[in-house]
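quick one, three chains, predict together pls
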Amino acid sequence: MTAYLLCLVLFSIGLYCILRKRNLIKIIIGIGIVEYAVNLFFILVGYRTGGRSPIFARDQVITNMVDPLPQALVLTSIVIGLAVTALLVAIAIRIYEKYGTFDITKINKLKG
Amino acid sequence: MLEIHLLLIFMIAAAIIAVRVKDLLSSVVAVGAAGLGLSLSFLVLKAPDLAITQLVVEILCLVILIRATIKKDLPFSASGRWFFNTLITLCFLAIFLGAAYFSLKSLPQFGNAVMRVSGIYVENGMIQTGSPNIISAIILDYRGYDTLGEVTVLFTAAIGVLAIVRKIGRKRET
Amino acid sequence: MRHSKEAGMTLIVKTVTRLTVGLILLYGIYIIFNGHLSPGGGFAGGVIMALSFINIMLAFGKEAALKKFNLSSAQLLASAGALIFLLLAMIGFIDGHFFSNFFFKNKLPFDLLSEGNIPIYEVAISLIVGGGLFAIFVALVIEHKADKHSD
């Protein structure tokens, strides 16, 4: 129970960084911390005490394994998180080339 | 499970440092330390596939962040009404954590996973697919369609990055 | 600081890179091909292969890395991997298998070539991930020196 709560504290630290910072790179770092917390929460739910990693060996009979399904989903999610971070950094570079700053209160030339 | 709690406290400390430090390079290094703590947590939670993938993806993410933004550091100061905004955000986060505590009570206890679907995968996985690694069997045989979606997302991100930072076809403002 | 006119990093970094970058590439290929026997798989192996080329680019400068493996061949490899993945899945549609295995087991499990469909999928995924991530990195760090005064 305390492991779940600590994981959600990590999530809320990332959420605070997204909401309250003015530098664009700090917002990207906050999104990264939120992704770490969510991936860790999935694996924490699917853990079995005294279990073993879900790989069969050649001449052993294994009875107790941890849950392999959340691990398969989180494997996909880690690589997707990297792709999203790369796209965010590309957008940040373009914004810097156009406005000269990373401050989000000065990026307000959106013309409709 | 004492190691999980220690690693979580280490990750929380690294995340707090990454949020509060004003220098951009230091905060990127602190996020790297949090990623390393996450990889060790995956190893303790008996998921070696994820530990390898998280470690190398963390290295690549750090290299991209440092290499693309390192010359563009800028200092600034906080504006007015700063105290009121921070108080509202902290109240919202406290309400969020309180509601989360009440809803986390209905989850099964930490360590007793209800493996209703995964029990079938673990029993018949090696016989039906022939691969001893159950995770490879799941992501390439039972749930192969999700892997196709993930490859599509990666491809779209690569196309998007190549389209955003290109030089040909950009409008010249004179 | 001693900044000379040559690209890349100092002499120690260059020497160590010359010794170890081939081993990193070999390790990535090992993780891909043993994806169905031990932890690893296509995603981690693809990222490690992209990291070895990025290592050359960081240590020796951009031109030395792009001579070995330029942007259009990275895009070609990524597209080829995606087409192999889709083609292999579509061939399975003929007999009614939706994304599942159809080269049936004719060898023992725990062998390197045991299950026919899964290693081919791993190689295709590694091509997509490695080529795509290297293309992203090259596009992000090529400096736009001509565009600093316009826009």
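The radius of gyration of chain C is 20 Å.
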